[in-house]
Specification:
Elements: H1 3-17, H2 19-48, E1 54-55, H3 56-63, H4 67-76, E2 82-84, E3 87-90, H5 92-103
Antiparallel strand pairs: 1-3, 2-3
Helix pairs in contact: 3-4
Length: 104
């Protein structure tokens, strides 16, 4: 092994032992993991042909929050839903966006 290779290995070792580098590495891994989960869930929905629609009441029960909380999320733009008559319906994909929002 040449001295240049040894210097490169030492620099890489020093970088990996740096706290900031490890923190950045952890953030990047988490970002890609969440992105991959989202892509796989979308793909699974397409394969199954699942377009399950949920109402505000369904979502409130699922997340154990009040209907007012769901309305607040709609005002903040976290979820949108589709309005049909007096009711609003949400796809499973929109509901998953709530899960990613709550993880943060």
């Amino acid at each position: 092994m040449t001295s240049r290779e040894k210097e490169e290995q030492q620099a890489l070792y020093d970088l990996r032992s740096d706290f900031k580098f490890r923190l950045l590495e952890k953030i990047i891994k988490q970002f890609f993991t969440e992105s991959l989960e989202a892509v796989l869930l979308k793909q699974q929905d397409r394969l199954l042909g699942a377009e399950n629609l949920s109402t505000i009441t369904d979502i409130a029960k699922r997340f154990k929050v009040s209907k007012t909380t769901i309305h607040n999320w709609m005002q903040r733009g976290i979820i949108h839903g589709s309005k049909v008559g007096k009711n609003r319906y949400f796809t499973e994909e929109e509901i998953r966006s709530i899960i990613f929002f709550l993880k943060r």
